[in-house]
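Hey all, sorry for the wall of text incoming. These are the two entities for the joint prediction.
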Amino acid sequence: MTNKLIIKCFNVVCVVLLLFVVLWPAYWMLITSLKTNTEILTVPPTLIPLKPTIDSYRTLFQTSFLKYLSNSIIVSVITVVISTIFGTLAGYSLSRFNYPGKKYIGRIILFSYLFPGVLLMVPMYVLASRLNMLDNLFVLPIIYVTFTAPFYSWLLKSFFDNMPENLEDAAMIDGANYWQTIWKIIIPLSAPGVAGAALWTFIMSWQEYMFATILLSSDQNLTAPVGLSRLLAIQQRFNWGILNAGAIVSALPVLILFVILGRSFISGLTTGSGK
Amino acid sequence: MKNNISINLTKKDKIGLLLIAPLLIWLTIVLLYPFVYVIFLSFFRRDPGTSIYEFRGFSYFYNLLFRDDIFWQSLLRSFRWTSINVILQFIFGILTALLLKQKLRGMSLVRLWVILPWITPIAVVVLVWRWMLNPSIGIVEVLLRQFGFIEGYLNVLANADTVMNAIIGIHSWRFFPFVAVIILGRMLGIPEELYDAAKVDGASSFQSFLYITLPQLRGVMLTFLMLATVWTFTSFDTIFLMTGGGPVNLTTTLPILVYRKAFQTYQLNEGAALSLIMFLFSAIFMAIYVKLGVERND
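and here's what came out:
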C-alpha cells in the first residue's frame, strides 16, 4: 500500500515538473509583457509584476502589428477553407470508394504530406518572382494548402473509416443521389473530424515562417510570425516588454481556437496516426 | 489511352475520382511542378540577359562537394542536429507518454495542455527563449549567476560551445510533447487485458512495458522516427530564427545553407542543387525506415 502511495507521489511530482517545463515560457512571456520597463530591467527579476500595466500592448499597437495579425488571419482562413474543401472530398473519396489506382493515389497523397517544404524554398521564390507574385499575400495560401490538404484528407479518411456507412445507405435507398448524400449527410456528420483537422491546418498556416519570410517584404504585407521576428531583429528600438506583448498577441488566436476545439484536435491526431 | 481506361469505370468510380481530383491537380501544380523545377535549376542556369537556359551538367554539385568546405561542415552538423534531436524527442516523448497514461485527477487537462509548445508559433517560441537566454537580464542567466554556476556572462547563443546544444534543446522542447501525444494515443489503444494477464503471470511493470507496450508501439514509433528524422533534417525555422546560422557558420545546417546560397550570395542554382542533395538524404532515410518496418512486420 505504501508502495502504491510512493508511486503516486512520484507521478504527481513528475506531472508538476512536466507542466512547469512546458508552461513556464508562456507564463514568463505573459508576465514580462505586463511589467513596466524599469521592472523588466530589475535583477533579480520579479515573478509577479509589482505594478501590472498594459503599456507594452499600447505601444505594440502603435506599430503595424494589427496589420500583421489581420494578414495572418486572412492567410490562415483562406488556407483552412481551401484545405477543408479539398481534404474532406479527398478523404471521403479515399475512405468510401474503390476505383482503380486508389492505392497509388493514397500513397501519392501520403508522400506529399511527408515532402519537406524547405526543398521548395528556391523554386517557389523563383517561380513567384517570374509570376510577379513576390510580396503578394495571396501566394501564401496557395503554398500552404499544398502542405496542409494532404494530411487533412488523411485525417478525414480515418474519420470516415470509423463512421458507419448505414446512414448513407439509408439516404441512397430513400432516393437521394450521391451529391445530396454528401451534402446532407456526410458534411454534417463529418463536423467533429473537420473541426480537428481545420484546427491543425490553422495552427500550421498561422505559424508558418519560412515561405512568408522569403516571399514577403513590405511592412504592410507581413504575417504575424515574420513581423514579430523583424521586431526582434531591430530590438534596440523595442524593449522586451513590447516584444513579449507581440509574442502573446501572436499566439493568442491559436490558443483561443485550441481552447474551443482542442479535444477534437487531440483525438483526431491520435486516431489519425493510430494505424 | 485515357478513354480506354475510363470506359471501365462505373459511375461510382467516376464520382470517387472526381472528389479527389481537385487535390491531385493542386498537388501537381504547386508541389510536383516546383519540385521538377528545382531539379531543373540544379542543372540549368538562366542567363539574366538573354533569358536562355544553359546546361551546366553537374558543375553546381561539383562546386558544393569539392570546392566548398562549408557544405561538408554543414552536412556533418545536420547529422548531429538530426540525431540528437530525434533521440531527445523520443526519450522524452515516451517518458511523457508513460506519465500521461497514469490515472490521476485532472490528467485529461494535462494531456490537452502539454502540447502547448507545439501549437505555439515558432517565432513566438524563439522570441521567448531568446528573451530568457538574454545575457544581461534573461532569467536563465540571472539565475545561473545568482546561484554561482557561472561568473560573468555566458551568452549562450553567441558562445561556440553552447549555441548548437541550446538550439537543439529548444527544438526538442518544442516537439517532444507532440511525440508524447501521438505515442499516448497508441498506448491507450492497447487492450487492458494484456496488462492484467501479465500481472497474473507475475510480470513487473517494467517487464510489461518491455514485452507488451514497446512491441505494440513499434509501428507508430517507426513511422514517427521516420517523420521526425526527415522533418528535423530539413527543419529551417528554429535555427534560422535563433541565430540565422551564426555565430559565423557554427549553427549552419543544410537548410540554412540553402537560404544563404540562394538569398544572401544569390547562387540560386547552387541552392537548388543543395536542395536536391537534401532530398536524396530524406529519401534514403525514408527508405531505411520503410525497409525496417516491412521486415519486422513480416
